[in-house]
Amino acid sequence: MRSAPGLLVLLSLLLPGCAELRAPAQSAAPPGLTPGAADPGRAAIAATAYAFADGGGRLTGRPAEAAQASAQLEYLAADVARGGRWRALPSSLPFELAASRLELRSALGTAPEADPAAVSRALLAAARALRAGDRAAAEQALAPPLFPAGGAATLLRLNEVAPLPQTANTTAVLAQEVRRLDEEQRWERFNSPELIEGSGLTTSGLGGGMPGY
Question: Is 26 helix (H, G, I), strand (E, B) or coil?
């Protein structure tokens, strides 16, 4: 039987993790991902579902918007794969998002193995530059090695990113699943630790996520 002091030590180690599971922290989003949004993750889900609803057709001729939406998808693919607050989502979604990211990277000419955070930051920098009318700065943001073809060629691709059928389907499903979990109030069920009767606590789920974004 575990001594009282030993049990207190165990509890002191486990309880901070339990609190984290009850209210999982948002992973840090790059500045400007979803301007003005209190919850960048949810805002990015809504924004990408809209932007890619027709396979990216509405982004044609709008390279700044295409860069912004692409940055949001890069962030979401990494953040959902991490688990954390999104562990209640269907287990297939991280794989579908990874496939969507690959589809989008192929359309833009992004290096397939590039770091998602670096790609997201570069795309956001390009979007800001384009909105400011600074095409040279946008080209500079989209330079190799992240974008092997260079900034000028990548901007041409951003100008006509469609068609993106995989991305359209995945972002729609992701938004639908978030709405479903909201309506069914099922987030807490997946974000709470399992407690057992008696003197012990389970440690399932503690520290089991992938590295953060």
Answer: coil
Query: What pLDDT, in 10s, does the model give residues 112-159?
Result: 999 999 999 999 999 999 999 999 999 999 999 999 999 999 999 999
The two tokens of residue 47 are 């924004």
Mean per-residue pLDDT of the chain: 83
Where are the chain's structural domains? 1-23+191-213, 32-187
Contact 124, 64 (CB under 8 A): no
**Residue among 59, 64, 72 nearest 155 (CA):** 64
Is the bond into 211 cis (omega within 30 degrees of 0)?
no
Tell me: the pLDDT tens digits for 48-57? 999 999 999 9
Q: Residues in the chain, how many?
A: 213
> How big is the chain by its Cα radius of gyration, in Å?
20
195 φ/ψ angles, rounded to the nearest 5 degrees: -110, 140
Q: What distances in angstroms separate CA 192 from CA 18, 205, 212, one per listed residue?
A: 7, 9, 20
Residue 14 has pLDDT above 80, yes or no: no
Q: Is 84 left (phi over 0), alpha (psi -120 to 50) or beta?
A: left
**What is the residue whose two structure tokens read 């956001």?**
124
Partners of 195 in beta bridges: 201
Question: Distance between CA atoms of 208 and 122, rounded to whole angstroms?
Answer: 30
